[in-house]
Amino acid sequence: MADDFYATAKRMHKSSKTLHNNSEYHNACYLAGYVVECYAKIIVGLSYDFVPSELGKEFSHDLKELNKELQYVITYSTYSAYIVNMRTDFSTILLNVTKWHPIKRYTSNTNTWNQQNSNDFQAEIQLAMQKLAQMKIDGHILI
């Protein structure tokens, strides 16, 4: 079965929002990071005409590397209208002590991702989902 980054982004967005609304902030933030990862992999994958399995091998969960690729492809990609600067638009997820990384799922200190972080993460993933929804509306087939 092939990876489906769009379906995964939608599923993770829904679950993150549900957890956030039920004050499960750490896990809401954890799943939110996957929404941004999927968003970036979709744009990079479509820009380079990669198949989904290539994206997992090439980028894993490295949001900084994915952002570098987005900033590189923005100048020539037919998807440039959907590309954001992750350092600016997903700054809570990408930067500082609160930044997202899947390894944080193992931490015993679940206060790192608190309500305020989760509020910020939710706003940031909403932007990612809006960009993906606009791509669908514009007729692009998302991977």
| Percent helix range | 55-70%
Q: Mind summarizing the main beta sheet?
A: none
Give Rg in angstroms: 14 Å
- End-to-end Cα distance, whole Å, is 13 Å
At a glance:
The protein contains seven helices and no strands.
Keywords:
143 residues, mainly alpha, 7 helices
Question: Any overview of this molecule?
Answer:
There is one protein chain. With 143 residues, the protein is mainly alpha-helical. It has one domain (5-137). It is 64% helix and 0% strand. It is built from seven helices and no strands. It has helices spanning 5-21, 25-48, 52-59, 63-73, 86-89, 91-94, 115-137. Helix 1 (5-21) packs antiparallel against helix 2 and helix 2 packs across helix 3. It is globular, with a radius of gyration of 14 Å.
List the helices and strands and how they pair.
Elements: H1 5-21, H2 25-48, H3 52-59, H4 63-73, H5 86-89, H6 91-94, H7 115-137
Helix pairs in contact: 1-2, 1-7, 2-3, 2-4, 2-7
